[in-house]
Write a structure and sequence with these properties.
Elements lengths: L1 H5 L6 H14 L10 E4 L4 H14 L7 E2 L4 H8 L10 E4 L5 H9 L5 E16 L9 H8 L13 H4 L10 E3 L5 H15 L3 H9 L1 H9 L7 E3 L4 H9 L5 E5 H6 L4 E3 L9 H5 L6 E9 L9 H11 L16 H13 L5 H5 L2
Helix pairs in contact: 3-14, 6-8, 8-10, 9-10, 14-15
Amino acid sequence: MANRISAFLKTGAVLAFAASTLAACDSGGDSGAQSVHAVGSSTVYPFAKLVAENFARSNSDMRSPLIESTGTGNGIQLFCSGLGPNTPDMVNASRRMKASEFDTCASNSVDEIIELQVGLDGIVLASAKGGIMLNLSPETIYKAIAAQPFGKPQTAKTWKDVDPALPADPIVVYGPPSTSGTRDALKELILHVGCDTDPGMKALKDSDETNYTQICTEVRDDGAFVDQGEQDNLIVQKIAGNPRAVGIFGYSYLEENLDKVQGLPMNGVQPTYDNIADFDYPGARPLYVYVKKAHMRAIPGLEGFMKEWVKSWDKGGPLTKIGMVAMPPETMAANAAKVQSQTVLTKAELEAK
């Protein structure tokens, strides 16, 4: 597989890919194998599926893009594995690409990447409708699910053990796996913030960053935190069936299931559309799509599919109707311009975040 990929580098191979693809279309052959192929985030998956369906409806001569839910981390790994027909054209991500992932892409000749922010989402903590109600903070969440809170053994069995103001219900949290972009965003937006409330942790970051990262982001494995895989709908089902359990997933799954679950406030702020759009809610995050510029000629529908995203992300558009939070107008305009100009991402941009 590696040899096959390495043999398919940009030095003529992508042009050959494009030529064979266009020849298949011209001869009336089945172009299914050349349909747009996207992998990645389970959070972005329902949005990408809707964009794909609308694209196919407007382009009846093309196959609907193939969208796979692999998780952000696994999706980026597949995306960065090389160029050519055996690799995805796009990856959907519920967090930004890391500089190390950018380097992996470049080492496999995926060195022209277009980055699009497509909307906003929130990392939501929720419980069954009418179930346990908790007013949480990044600090209480960290203390509840960290393997070694502030470097000490994890002894909390109930929420009251974490904060006397919380109920004496057992800590049961269903959450995303380590390969999920939601897990990465949970670490960055909540666990790190909670961990940094201890001055000793900030000092540790300066002296031993590896140990600091482990203490601040490793979650407990004693059954209080349950890795529920890449299917956010399964987490919804789990907490809907257990009124004392808490789930962690993207905002769109909360909005879609308000008849079954309720959002839990963080720092007293409810996880609502407006609070996420204004970044008042601590778990607010951007969502991304990454595209291989080298595949633009090889896949006739790829540019059109990118433009379909632009047509879909307005406030009041099809994506916000299924739970995506629209970006500010200036962010929409900047990302629409990237599609038009096919501007490529640089490592300096990633490192400057």
